């Protein structure tokens, strides 16, 4: 985690999704990782609650604001997920993850998950008495599954933008996707290319 004094804070109206996995969407809450523009989106309990509402399965029901200490736990889990992804993409695979990050992921993954429920309208909904903890458990389990899936790892890649820092799972048929989003990073790169050629 970068020095907190150097991290800008932003709580967006909507969080970025579309990486192809819940754990990778969660990584996006630290924008512009490893750049001078690094920006923290999980600024406070309200921001964590907003992320769980938007991105987690329990967004329809009430989500109580977590205690301030839970934000630090969520950020630490995010950094453990990041460490696992980097290890999984490295030559030694997921076994190379630091022991503390492995322990944090395993602990979070052991928490109770949301349970399915049939809503009065006949749709499938999800419930948890503690949606934040349940969503963090899903994130940890998703990261563990992704990092140990030989079929998926070749399609897991970082965005080609040098300032983005996001990862995505490339579901395209040729497997040649370069950007986490064509609307943001891809568009910026194309515009920069046009300016450079002009």
UniProtKB/TrEMBL annotation:
Signal peptide: none annotated. Residues 155-197 form the Zinc finger CGNR domain. Gene3D superfamilies: Jann2411-like domain. Pfam families: ABATE, zf-CGNR. InterPro entries: ABATE, ABATE_dom_sf, Znf_CGNR. It comes from the Bacteria. SUPFAM superfamilies: Jann2411-like. This is CGNR zinc finger domain-containing protein. It comes from Streptomyces polygonati.
